Amino acid sequence: MIEPGKRVVVAMSGGVDSSVAAALLKEQGCEVIGMTMQIWDYSKFTADHGESSGSCCSLDDVYDARRVAESLDIPFYVVNFEKQFEKEVIDRFCDDYFKGLTPNPCVVCNQVLKFEVLLRRARELQADYLVTGHYAQLVRKDGFFALEKGRDRNKDQSYFLFTLTQEQMQYVRFPLGGMTKEQVRGHAVRLGLNVAEKPESQDICFVPDGDYVRFLEEQRGSGAMNGDIVHVDGQVLGTHLGTYRYTIGQRRGLGLSWPHPLYVVGIDALKRKVLVGEKHCLVVYHCYVDDINWLIDAPERDIEAACRIRYRHQEAPSLITVLDDGSARVDFYEPQSGVTPGQAAVFYAGDRVLGGGWIRESGMRDEGHDFEDL
Amino acid sequence: MNRIYLDYNATSPVRPEVLEVMLPFYKEQFGNPSSVHWAGRQVSGALEKAREQVAALINASPAEIVFVSCGSEGDNMAIKGTLTALKGKGNHVITTAVEHPAVLETCEALAKEGYDVTFLPVDKDGQLDLADLEKAITDKTVLISVMWANNETGNIYPIEEIGKIAKKYNIRFHTDAVQAVGKIPVDVQKANVDLLVISGHKIGAPKGVGAIYIRRGTRMATFLHGGHQERNRRAGTQNVAGIVGLGKACEIAGAELDDYYKRVRLLRDRLEDGILSQVPDIKLNGTPDRDQRLPNTLNVSFAYIEGESLLLNLDMFGIAASSGSACTSGSLEPSHVMGAMCVEVTLAHSSTRFSLGPETTAEDIDKVLEVLPATVQRLRDMSPLYNCGRTAEGCETCETVRRI
After folding, report:
1. Which of A117, A341, B13, B384 stands 20 to 30 A from A235 (CA)?
2. What amino acid positions of A are annotated as catalytic residues?
3. Per-residue pLDDT at B336
């Protein structure tokens, strides 16, 4: 709850969620300032590829957000973070793919842009809080902040927020965390907000057509990166044009003929190898997670937690063992498939986020498969 | 909240006298100036009067004035129209690295099409070396395009000297005078300019109207085809009310030029002196010689903070200033002008432009001087750069700050 009279900066995307957040706070008597991050110059991009649509952060949305701010009669600023976005998000996105990882740029964007640079902008404007339309809840317990899932389980975005620090949480608020999407839509109608609800997109905002391979090649060029596609039993089944074109669990587009369906089960960028196997080969019992941010006091010994290994994953009960270097080994009580290096692993106790980090390595190497190449 | 507008280089309010003369052309005098009947005649006279008023301000003859929709259109027309018309003669353009995007990006687009473009560098104060200009000239050079005054720093360029050089080598000379007209004397004869561009909304006329001076006998290709308006130079029914407004604004600018210069210069100097004496660790962008700068413009970098933050904070106090050029999709881009002047990158990010106008008062300036130093200090206290500069030795940022 934000007290009336407080000055808040609302990160506005032009979509229904952040617009309702801004409108509700204004209604409650807060001094609301709208801000939108301009992070990517779509004019460079769409020139060759037609219109972008259905993404969350296009330049068009800057106009949408401006229109909403105007209708709410609140000050509105566009802040230009293109440089930071390119350096911190795009570069890392490309690096990760070429390292054989499958990156999650949304978490990085939250971490280094929204809750770092944008929050600083808000603080510079003497705002009490930075508000976003995320579906997640912050609960104050004993002087500490706990991050919890959003009330609407279908929309819960706590997974994307595991990098929050105690200091950031002092200044960040998620007013929609206790609402369902239906309630938010209801508020939009009640408040007369004329925000067209955009189709939900699974695509990354800077790859609006979903063709990330073309994006990578345009960013970094395509050199000789071809290599072998190898079956887990060691047999070479074919060749590929670059490991960055594959992700764990991928079945389509392998161009192999084999009696059983084959999946990508491993990627070795250094040796330019794509490892494939039958469905059961996707299953692992553990993984390693590094770069961990703990939202609780960092545990000194093993803890039990439910681990979510991608956004739309039902978290799996696990044993988390903190290793000497600060990273952790996650042992799933039930084997999990599709554990993908580069994705975030977030630890929960019930609704509460305990911490999270980046999957560095799935446990395939230790699983007793005959993976001499991995 | 008391609102203080110090962004006249971006745009200016329409003068009441200007609006007054425009209104009849939205009501009873609605005719198309190309029509022969009474309704058309009523209007075409007003158009020609406006042409005279614009011509008088820059010492041209009315037949040399073509009305356009904005400064950017004028600049595009001057550059592309020249290169197309003189295709047989050469394909080389000389311009500067500090032009307005209307010129700079036009030239960059032409370079992509295969034209040869030289972008003259500037020194750390943003000044040109005319020896560079002469050296750049080849037998293929068909156009020199140099702005009369820079929108960001206010630097005034030696247009008369450049005009002499252009004449000596018999090269066409275009100047974007959008920031100069109405602020300092502009005389196309004295300066030997062939093409000169004016924008209405910078001098108290409305947005959507501008003019280009095309010296008599200058061969130009047309790129807006259609009717025979503007002596076949630019098709399309004229924006009559806007043009009438532009005429009036030019008349006022001419009549008030001396007074304007003295008054605005005094206020600008008061702001400049105040900031320089009250805020440490700053850098003046542009030439320190105030006579060589527009009387209304001040551009300062505040070390350790970002211009964007400062602007937003000033806005919260009702003070409108600007950083870089406001022409890019409402966002705040680091400035190519600062880049050309080799302003160190963090300082370039903190560059802030105050541009005054005829409506600016001494109280406005004093209010800025009351708010600004404290705001800068507050932002510095929050800045990681500032705190590092205070404690760590050899912080690179400190080296580049010129204490004035």
Report:
1. A341
2. 109, 205
3. 87
Q: Which residues contact B397 (CB under 8 A, 6 or more apart)?
A: B303, B304, B344, B346, B347, B385, B388, B389
* Residue B321 and residue B247 share a domain: no
Counting residues of chain B whose pLDDT is more than 70, the rounded percentage is 93
Q: Which of B70, B107, B250, B327 is catalytic?
A: B327
Q: What is the dihedral of CA B118, B192, B174, B130, to 10 degrees?
A: 20
Give the CATH number for residue B375: 3.90.1150.10
Across the beta sheet with A273-277, the strand order is A236-240, A227-231, A273-277, A263-268
Q: For chains A and B, count residue pairs whose Cβ atoms are closer than 8 Å.
A: 38
- Could A124 and B382 be called an inter-chain contact, meaning their C-beta atoms sit closer than 8 Å? yes
- DSSP state at residue A272: T
Closest CA to A187 of A18, A24, A11: A24
Most distant pair of Cα atoms in chain A: their distance: 68
Question: Which domain, by its residues, includes B150?
Answer: 16-253
Q: What is the CATH number of the domain that holds B71?
A: 3.40.640.10
Same domain flag for B46 and B164: yes
In the numeric block, which tokens belong to residue B319?
Answer: 């003070």
Asked if the model's pLDDT at residue B396 lies above 80, the reply is no
Domains along the sequence of chain A with CATH? 7-190 (3.40.50.620), 223-277 (2.30.30.280), 283-366 (2.40.30.10)
Q: Are residues B138 and B75 in the same domain?
A: yes
Using CA atoms, how far residue B85 sits from A129, B88, B102, B116, B260, in Å, is 59, 8, 20, 16, 39
- The backbone region for B252, taken as left when phi is positive above 0, alpha when psi lies in -120 to 50, beta otherwise, is alpha
Task: Tell me the residues of chain B between 318 and 377 that have a Cβ less than 8 Å away from chain A.
Answer: 329-334
- Together in a domain, B66 and B83: yes
Q: Using the beta-carbon criterion (under 8 Å), do A62 and B330 form an inter-chain contact?
A: yes
* B309 interfaces chain A, CB cutoff of 8 Å: yes
- Which of these three, B233, B253, B273, is where a domain ends? B253
The reply to whether B296 and B196 lie within a common domain is no
pLDDT at A255: 85
Task: Name the band, by pLDDT with cuts 50, 70 and 90, for residue B261.
Answer: very high
Active site residue B250: no
- Does the distance separating the beta carbons of B332 and A79 come in below 8 Å? yes
Note whether B276 and B220 are same-domain residues.
Answer: no
Q: Of the candidates B313, B329, B332, which has its C-beta nearest A125's C-beta? A: B313
Contacts of B379 in chain A (CB under 8 A): 124
Interface test with A, best of B331, B378, B386 (most A CBs within 10 A): B331
- Looking at B224, B253, B282, the residue that finishes a domain is B253
Convert the pLDDT of each residue in A183-226 to its tens digit: 999 999 999 987 766 666 567 878 877 888 999 998 888 777 89
- Could you tell me if A193 and A23 are in contact, meaning their C-beta atoms sit under 8 angstroms apart? yes
Quick check: A185 and A16 in contact, CB under 8 A? yes
Asked if B384 reaches chain A (Cβ–Cβ under 8 Å), the answer is no
Smallest Cα distance from B370 to chain A, Å: 18
Q: Where does residue B330 fall: left (phi above 0), alpha (psi -120 to 50 degrees), or beta otherwise?
A: left
Q: Is the pLDDT of residue A54 over 90?
A: no
pLDDT in tens, B162-192: 999 999 999 999 999 999 999 999 999 999 9
Number of domains in chain B: 2
Residue type, A301: R
> Please, how many CA atoms are within 13 Å of residue A236, restricted to the half-sphere of its CB?
7
Residue A370 has pLDDT above 90, yes or no: no
B404/B399 Cα distance (integer angstroms): 14
Q: What is the ipTM of this complex?
A: 0.75
Task: Kindly state whether residues B232 and B267 are assigned to the same domain.
Answer: no
Asked if B221 and B88 sit in the same domain, the reply is yes
Residue B394: band (very low, low, confident or very high) from pLDDT cuts 50, 70, 90: very low
